[in-house]
Amino acid sequence: MIERAYRLVQWALLGSAGILVLNALFCMFIGYGPNILVFFAATMGLAASGIILVVLSVAPPTKHKLITTAIALSVGVGAIFARGQLTMLGARLFFLTRRAELEAFVSDLLAYGRIWEMCDGKRYFKELNGELITYEAPPLDASQPTPTRSFLYYRDVLARDSIDEETYESFRHRLQDIKLISVEVHEQYVAFVYDGMLDNLIGYVYVRSGNPPSPGVEFVDSTMLVALKSLGRGWYFFATT
Description:
The protein is built from seven helices and nine strands, in the order αααααββββααβββββ. It has helices spanning about 1-30, 30-55, 65-80, 85-95, 100-110, 155-160, 165-180, and strands at about 115-120, 125-130, 130-135, 150-155, 180-185, 190-195, 200-205, 225-230, 235-240. Helix 1 (about 1-30) packs antiparallel against helix 2 and helix 1 (about 1-30) runs parallel beside helix 3 (about 65-80).
């Protein structure tokens, strides 16, 4: 009975380690929220199975169980320590599957020249050219308090900046298809935000000037750039805080 339980827990530990590895490699494909849940569940599973495995390996201890326990624990620890490198590899893989679309998107944004900041429109806070916008038409009586008082109606911003609505919608849906939440166009670069929590953002940036920004400077959404990894041909993966 103990031997059977030992084997089951051993497989549970190896399975949790495998999930951690796959989660790191494909986290950007499954999304920010699901990635956190999977990481938490796999980490808890790894810790619990590791503790149980150590207990079972000494009840009673045998040379074979001690060796296999050490190997299983090494695999689990290795999965944890390799997560950073695997996550970066996953970010590179995510980018490579979208490089052509991103390069075409940058070209079209620069050619159009009237949109310098926009989001995919799927979150509560939506932005367009420096304004918080809403897709709901304003009430007829503007003197009445409403939750959208601090927002501008998006068609008013489109008209103000001479943006064609069909072009705007096309760009917005392209962001959704690529699975990026926003884009900012600057003189030196074009930055696409993947996701993040508060001011801890990650994404991809195309450097127009040939000189990438240095860590510590102000970057997208008034955050501070803390990491920049080259992806080739002027593209970088970035992280902010």
